[in-house]
Predict the 3D structure of the following.
Amino acid sequence: MRTFMVLFCFIFIEINSIQAQHLDSLFNDQEKKNPFKLRHAEPLYIDLIRDLGAHKGEREWNIGFGMVDKLRFDKYHALVEYEWAPADRLGLEIELPITYYTLPPNGLAQERPSNRLESIKTAAQWTFHVSQRFRSSFALGYINELEFADLNIISWSKPFQGNQFNPFFITAKQLGRDFHTLLYTGPQFHLDIASNEWKKQFELNINFHYMIPESRNFIGIEFNSLFQKDNFEMVIRPQMRLVIQESLMVGIVQGIPVSKERERLSTFLRLIYEPRHK
């Protein structure tokens, strides 16, 4: 019986892989002048700079809004993001994140961080290999986050308080026709401009998605992990993406922290507008 189940799973994956190859061939036949590109499900919270294997001229607008229960107060965050591909397999991005904190009801206002325009976030991503045989894509990238000072102390002479440097590596694979997995990982180095102190941590994000057949809708899950010295934090983010119309999608994410010492549940909503490109 066990041998039969293993054989059945192998045949199922092979059939789905053949179907996926056929769908990708049809997808790429429409753009024969561009390099081969695989369809991968993109995570909604820690998203990519651009599609893996992006074609020149692709672009996308994102508007995001989220809320985090920080135990003593609530944290609201929003972002406006623009990403585009100036060349085949190269993606660029600029993002402006904003954070707002509610007043705590227990009078502990001194524990609440300051509201702030978080940073100017710029990024680049290069898909250096796409394997049609193994249904996989590989990319390298870099994010630079120049952090603004808090709104209550910001000035023209000292507008910034820190800078974060984040090189990263991505690999993604189609598991048959409809199942997708993606690994996003890399170190983060933070410089405090005032004290000239450095901090570092390591980011590891593992993603699994099921894409609804013949559509761009999917359901999936992100495991977002951070390692810093002896500390470990993980947030599990079940999610779904719905296509409203051809160029407009909405992503819905729920955050569940493994440890509830710093935060409880969170939610995040991402509106995605992807104009058609020539």
Notes: The chain has one domain: 2-273. Residues 2-29 form the longest helix (28 residues). The two ends are 52 Å apart (CA to CA). Residues 2-273 form a domain with the Porin fold (CATH 2.40.160.40).
